[in-house]
Specification:
The chain is mainly beta. It has two domains: 161 residues, Immunoglobulin-like (Sandwich); 255 residues. A hairpin with a 2-residue loop joins strand 14 and strand 15.
Length: 441
């Protein structure tokens, strides 16, 4: 498997200060007090604006944490090419731009409140962005805004660290809906290379679609009545090109409506177990991860997917929360494992976990695939309930977490479970009386 070239642009070590300088001394003699909060908008053409807070540095000698990451952009080859093309974004040269503000944005007591712009830092996108090598583009303090003093006050200074790192990825595409047992191909430009096959099965219950409308002639069976009130027995097995099963995901806790409602709620989520073959016991499975999913009701419903890695080593006995993501129930969205992202879709973001273990390490963190903690691990784009055309799962996987085909297979099983969770979390039909069985809920 050959990966595609990606780069990771990280902005971190943020800090803000306004030095007090005497007229005869260029060294700062103190720090002006600023009214918190201070925030910045980090902009890169072609990407959504990212907003993060900027800590205030109260001491002239203090330096912000050099290891902290405030914002991350991931660029493919086409993204870098566009940024390096003059005029592509209606400017001679594309720039990474950081605009710093103080104050809240919004209203206070019914009166509009405007943020005050403190200053701007710009970094021109240069040829080094396309070299695929790690490089620190900027590290240290820099004055932002006007250089001249206004009302006797010097301008603010921003501390930041901008770094480029190569971040190659494998890109996979399910050829059809997961329930149709599709083939999984690796994308390399315009080339599609078959890598896995995906087999969906539905055990212990009739092979029916519980989400379709059915009339009185089809609801007499007690099995169908059970299926209408719970979704269980779903299993996805990932096979390599030789036909050997190399990973699987199956429902361990059924997707059932919670008491008093007709949907899967947070109080009782459905659960998938992600497994891989046990090297010591033929035809046995070894647990690797757990995916929980439920429906969050609101103006626009969302599906929450929460993923844990199951750990059973001497150092770690607890399950480790790796990701908790909200996906639009109607439009779909992206599930990801990325410890660099500070702003998450979930209401309660998980803590930064240690490195992800290899599927073949049986949860032993001493045998983690890579000693570097944090960063992008995987992403999976899935279709929502309102999609009119079929959009099978699209998966990206960091190269550093893959040493063989079997390592990639476990993430394909996870992606399949995320995709099927969108369907498993659809609202259920209410139990109907005989006189009203011709009407759907």
């Amino acid at each position: 498997m050959d990966p595609q070239a990606f780069i990771r642009v990280s902005v971190g070590s943020l800090g803000l200060r306004v030095p007090i300088k005497s007229l005869n001394d260029t060294k700062p003699t103190g720090i002006h007090a600023l009214s918190p909060p201070c925030v910045c908008e980090i902009r890169l053409p072609g990407f959504p604006v990212q907003t993060t807070s900027v800590p205030f540095v109260s001491s002239p000698e203090a330096t912000p944490d050099t290891n902290s990451i405030a914002s991350t952009f991931y660029l493919g080859e086409s993204d870098v090419k566009a940024l390096l093309t003059p005029g592509c974004f209606y400017t001679p040269h594309a720039c990474l731009e950081i605009v710093v503000f103080t104050g809240h944005k919004g209203t206070h007591c019914g009166v509009g409140v405007k943020r005050q712009q403190i200053g701007t830092f710009k970094l021109v996108v240069g040829p080094e962005w396309g070299h695929g090598k790690p490089v620190i583009l900027f590290n240290g303090w820099i004055g932002i805004g006007k250089s001249k003093q206004e009302n006797g006050k010097p301008g603010a200074e921003l501390h930041l660290r901008v770094k480029l790192d190569p971040d190659p990825r494998y890109v996979f595409q399910f050829e059809d809906k997961t329930k149709l047992s599709p083939q999984i191909v690796q994308l390399q430009g315009s080339i599609k290379q078959p890598i896995f096959s995906c087999k969906f099965s539905q055990e212990r219950i009739p092979q029916v679609d519980p989400l379709k409308s059915f009339w009185s002639s089809s609801v007499g069976s007690s099995d169908l009545e059970i299926e209408r009130r719970e979704r269980k027995g779903w299993k996805v097995t990932i096979h390599d090109l030789s036909g050997s099963a190399v990973a699987a995901a199956f429902i361990t806790t059924p997707f059932v409506p919670s008491t008093g409602c007709a949907w899967v709620a947070r109080s009782n989520p459905g659960t998938w177990l992600i497994v891989h073959p046990d090297g010591c016991r033929p035809e046995s499975w070894q647990p690797w991860g757990k995916l929980e999913a439920w429906r969050e009701r609101g103006i626009r419903d969302s599906i929450c997917c929460r993923f844990h890695v199951l750990c059973d080593s001497h150092e770690h006995r607890d399950d480790l929360l790796m990701s908790e993501i909200l996906i639009s129930a109607e439009k779909g969205g992206e599930f990801y494992i990325d410890t660099d992202k500070q702003v998450r879709a979930a209401a309660h973001p998980p803590p930064t976990p240690p490195p992800l273990p290899s599927p073949r390490s049986s949860g032993d963190y001493a045998a983690a695939l890579n000693p570097v903690s944090g960063g992008f691990v995987m992403s999976c784009r899935v279709q929502g309930e309102g999609g009119r055309c079929s959009k099978p799962p699209f998966v990206q996987l960091a190269k550093r977490y893959v040493t063989c085909v079997e390592d990639a297979a476990i993430f394909m099983a996870l992606a399949a479970a995320v995709d099927l969770s969108i369907e498993a979390c659809r609202p259920f039909r209410r139990r109907l009386g005989r006189s009203s069985r011709r009407h759907s809920w």
